Every structure is written in C-alpha cells, then in structure tokens.
Predict the 3D structure of the following.
Amino acid sequence: MKYCAVICELNPFHSGHEYILRRAREVSGCDRVIALMSGAFVQRALPACLDARSRAECALRYGADMVIELPVIYSSASGEVFAKGAIGILDTLPEITHLVMGAENADKALLERIARVRVNENEEFSEAIGRGLSGGLSYARALTAAVCSLAGGDPIETERALSCPNNILAAAYASALLARGSKIEFTPVARARDPEKYASASELRADEGTETAERFMPPVAREIWLNRRPNDVMRHYGTLLLYALRTRSAEEIASTPDCAEGFENKLKSLSRSCRNFDELLRTVPTSRFTRGRIMRICLHNLLGIRRDMQKSGYVCAKLTGIRAEAKDMLSLLPQNIIVNKQGESAIPSGQINCFEADRRASDLWALLAERRCDFYSRLLVV
C-alpha cells in the first residue's frame, strides 16, 4: 500500500484544500493520503483561527485518511525550517511515496532548479547575496537575485516564480527532500484559481459574516467554521507576547531561532517603552527583521522555543485523527508518531522539551480562545 502526503495549515479549510487533497490522490496514484497539519499556531506565528481537531475533521471529511500534527517548533518557523521539519517527519513513514503541494507554478523542473541552488549554497551563492546586499537590497531580495542568477533557465521566469508564496514553500520542500536524499517524490500541482469557485484562507478569516463561507467552503467544513470558531483569538495575544518580552532575559530572547545581531536588546528595550504590542511592531521592523520574523521571535520567546530545539532532529508528532475505513494504517505507524499519552515514552529524553512546547502551545491557544484545553482528547475517528 502506498501513501501520499500533503503538508498544510487548513486555516480554515476551504474548497481549494478539498481540491488539492483530491488531486493528491489522483496524481500520485496512492491508496491513502496523509495530511501533516499545523496545530495551534501557524507559520505566520499567529494562533490558528480554529482548533486543530476541528480542522483535522474537515480534512478527514474531504479527502485525507489520516491527520498528523506538525510540531509547533516547525509549524511556526521560517519556510526553510518549516519544510525541513515536515520532511524529516514524513521520511519516518516508509509507505509515503509522494509529497503533493499546491503551487502557483507547478513547473517541477523550475522548482527543482531553485531547490538545487539552495541545497548547494556555496561560495558563489554567498558572494551573489553579498553583492545584492552591497547594492542596497533587502536580504530577501538579495536572496532572490542570487537564486535567479544561479538557477539556470530564464531568470525572469525564476524571479516571477519566487514572487509567489506557495512557489517559495514548494521549492523549500523540494530542497529539503534533496538535502535528505529522500525517496519521496516531489509532486507540485497547480492551485485552483477560479475566483467563482475558490477563495483564499485569508479572505475567509477576514469575512465576519457567512457569505464567503457559503460560497467557498464545502458543507461540513462551513458548518464547523461557523459554529466552532472562537470569537477573537487575537484579542490578548499581543499583550502576552509583550509581557513575555518584558519578563524574559535578553539572553533567553537571543536563544530563539530567528534572533541575531543583538536584536534581543532592541526588543527588550522597546518592550518597556511601547504601550502595546502593535506599537512595538510599528516601531521595530527593518529590512533584515521583517514583521514575520519579529512575530516568530516573540512567539518562540513566549513558548520557550530555542534554536537548539529546531536543530535537534526532532521527528515525533502527535496523531490527531483518522478515517474509520483507514484504521489499518495504525499498525504501520512508527513509534515517533504519538497516538496517546503512553506514546510519549518513545520521545528521546533530550528532545522532550520539543514535545512540551506543543503542550504549551495547546494550552496557550485554549486560553486565547477561552476553551477547555484538550491536548490529549480521544483520537478523532471520522
């Protein structure tokens, strides 16, 4: 039996996600589809708009056979770390033969050329980035220019591809697969683009009413979204981030994965002078420290996520749900996929702090959403 994997956030689940899960099964020819899904916090270092169990239920209703939760040390990380962490976990399941992802440009050859440049970051690559920085480019734009100059093919086409967020993440997946020498086949598919049928997750999150949900979410997902979403998970989030900056030492802030160049001192100082977190964000961004990077530093500081945790090779992940017809998959799961509390015994003692970060993230999300914490609720079976 062959498995296909899809890495996702489903924040919230919409018709475009249903399309990708269906296409994953079609293009891979696999018997089962596994969704590796972000849990309480997503890549923008924000709390998920809906609890992980509800989002997993949507995936299981509309194409996935199993949902595994991506640990928060990876789900809230930069694209490169997000991809490396996810691929590391998927590589522990030998039945997975394909990784399918939606991209604006499903040109596999182009995305793999970009990936090879990132895998083989040599002196020439570093020099190309240096030239861009010396020319006044931000680090992100200097990185893009370096890739375009070294990837081969049409540099304009490469630059156009790298202007799209899903292409960038797809190339990061391809890079992680190449770096590990993984047997999993990189399989990009074109995202659904018909504006009459599909809306983005951000459009759904922004819609206060029901019109967008009624048009662009499948029925069960729409019902779950309208009936279970919390009122405002962001209401106290900034206050908690600011409090953590004020109460942690500069050394602790410096140990977070994205902090560098003494930036912890600037954050520590501004946390005292700014009246709220929004004021801090307006004050602090630079070309080197973007808003997204600052959000990651702050969340990781709050959750106690350190640089060494992301580099530890952690591959344990919690099983969230499974379709009743796919329960045969349970017997094939390796020990690093944790099904219940007893499964914690498989976590290496030196990496238990990575697992505890997931527990803290779950507790934090429950507080923000004013919900009961259910980190170890019974396995979801749909």
